[in-house]
Amino acid sequence: YAFCFQFEAADTLILLDYDDTLLPTSYLRSLQLLPQSTEPWDGPGELCNSVRSVLKSLDTEAARLLCLLKKSGNLILITNGVEGWIARTAPHFLPETWEEIQTVQHYSARHKHSGESDCPFYWKQKAYFDEMRTHSYGRQAYMNVVSIGDSPVEREALVRSSGHFANAIPKSVKLAEQPEPGVLQQELGTLAAHLSTLVGFVGPLDLQLGGMATT
User: Fold this and answer.
1) 108: helix, coil or strand?
2) Is 171 in contact with 143 (CB distance < 8 Å)?
3) Is 102 within the bounds of a domain?
4) How far, in Å, CA of 147 to CA of 16, rounded?
5) Between 152-162 and 120-136, two packed helices, what is the crossing angle to 10 degrees?
6) Per-residue pLDDT of the chain (215 residues; tens, 9 = 90+)
7) Which of 42, 114, 121, 139 is the most exposed place for a label (fewest CB within 10 A)?
8) In this structure, is residue 4 part of a structural domain?
9) Domain of residue 109, CATH code
């Protein structure tokens, strides 16, 4: 790639995961505050003060990042969770973040594509491909595609889907898998601090933020 410009918001598509990327799902499941996978869920029980405190700090950081992401490009939140998962969980655990999510396109790739395949990777890749196709329609300029998620699934979906578009410049940001809230908060803070550089960078990126220790 040879560029002589910086990408701007109009050029940029940001594809964001939800579980263990905004919501510390694995942590909440370990405390039995969320069900495993697709088990029925009637809502959380009472949160103890320590859990409420760490979630409040994470909530503030996640909401701040979402606000910045919305200004940086066309932000789309895609989960492999069941239909309505985001709307059922975010208000309980991340209410400030939920306020930001409500102004963002968000949906379940599982719900949209499980009729075509029972493979979770397929759901996410098909969602990525569809969003890139929509964003690139009638576009002659380069398409700046940023993927943010904790799983290798998001990275691989980005790589495979962007390969179908000659004008796509893929940027993958992989976070830690099954993070504690403090680790996730640090990662989101790091992303927020360097977001303008990440979005504006004039080439593809393959980054990993996982593994930072809490302070």
Assistant:
1) strand
2) no
3) yes
4) 6
5) 40
6) 444 457 888 889 999 999 999 999 999 999 999 988 766 677 777 889 999 999 999 999 999 999 999 999 999 999 999 999 999 999 999 999 999 999 999 999 999 998 899 899 999 999 999 999 999 877 768 899 999 999 999 999 999 999 999 999 999 999 999 999 999 999 999 999 999 999 999 899 999 996 543 33
7) 42
8) no
9) 3.40.50
Q: Which residues pair with 74 in a beta bridge?
A: 13
Q: Which two tokens stand for residue 179?
A: 């993070």
Eight-state DSSP code of residue 152:
H
Q: How far apart are CA 21 and CA 141, in angstroms?
A: 30
125 is in which domain, residue-wise?
9-35+46-208
Tokens of 96: 């400030």
The pTM is what?
Answer: 0.92
Length of the chain: 215
In total, how many domains does the chain have?
1
